Amino acid sequence: MLKFILMVLLMTLVVDSWITVQVSLFLASFMFGVYSLNGFSFSCLGLGFGMDYIAYILILLSFWIMALVVGSSQKIENFKDFDKMFLLVNVFLLLSLVLTFSCLDYLMFYICFESSLIPTMILILGWGYQPERLQAGVYMLFYTLFGSLPLLISILSLYSTGGSVTFGLSFVPNCSVSLFGVWYVCSVMAFIVKLPVYLVHLWLPKAHVEAPVAGSMILAGVLLKLGGYGLVRVCPLFIHSAVDFSWLWVSVGLLGGIFVSFMCLRQTDIKALIAYSSVAHMGLVLCGLSVFSWWGLSGAVSVMVGHGLCSSGLFCLANMVYERLGSRSLFISKGLLSFMPTMGLWWFLLSAGNMAAPPTVNLLGEISLILSVVSWVVLTMLPVALLSFLSAAYSLYMFSLSQHGKYFSALFSCCSGKVREYLVLMLHWLPLNILVLKGSIFIY
Question: How many domains does the chain have?
């Protein structure tokens, strides 16, 4: 693990060359993928660092998405406008993500978890499109800090009472049921906000709408997965309270996902629609992690990976439309099939992936999640069915409204797509469909 962290640090020395950083990221992805063939255990990767299969999958996803982020942000490189600073911020964001997924103690995990907020804020404030990006950054900062400060107090209390904050060695001492429940809520609230769950999700659409394409892709691709990964690590400490609170999180996840899906059906901004769909998907992930079953855990990891690839690709597509039309409105950008016909295929493929159509990883994950939630309580069958239906509904709504209809604009022709753009979209779509052949890697 240390060799990969050193490799990321060395990338800071070559930020003068855009292509060198991009090739290095793809090379790191390939090397990290081959690295698993030799096998590894949880703690054989260096002092204080280690990983299991969940951490391995998410680190590999981080390398892959970051390489695609650099490939899709060519406009910044063309204008030579702080392009070195842009690459430096992205490399430090990647470093914080890799450290977060490979930490072996809760305090270091908290520090790296929160450190990813700083490069993300710089991306939104430095390369955002609209004047409202300052408000979006403040929303993101305060929502995250509101949830994370109780987590810090919880970790310090864990050390003072248990004597250790190492994964697998920490334990929560016996205390009253009410105090145990409050301790549990304080510990998971940071990850609930980061996931994000309905009711604490307002920072996400604002951050996505105001962020550049790099910020949106890395936010949807990896940063939302920090919440799910944190729940996997923290919930076993409070297993009794977590089981007692399962009904709450399953209810919030399912009903919140349904409410957000209805909100998606009335969105006119493409990026806002994709951002709200992320909230609906993460609600189902929360349900799978809350029922404490192998089906739920493997399904949650599958959906996190599939959503990371699919949602990142959709944000990349939305940015390609925005660069040509100067608008993200679905009413202005309708009829794109006659305007950019070769892009229509990618809109269809990624919209199908967003609704968990076969043969994507999303389908594999949603089947596992549906089985885990319905086997927990049969009454959840109706909201789960409604959530799946609405997921298909807003994906079809986005595709049909953007691709069909009569195109109204003063712009009559433009480039339908470049080889670089098709390559980035292909590298989103291929892993999304090929990983289903190796579904066993999502079983923890």
Answer: 1
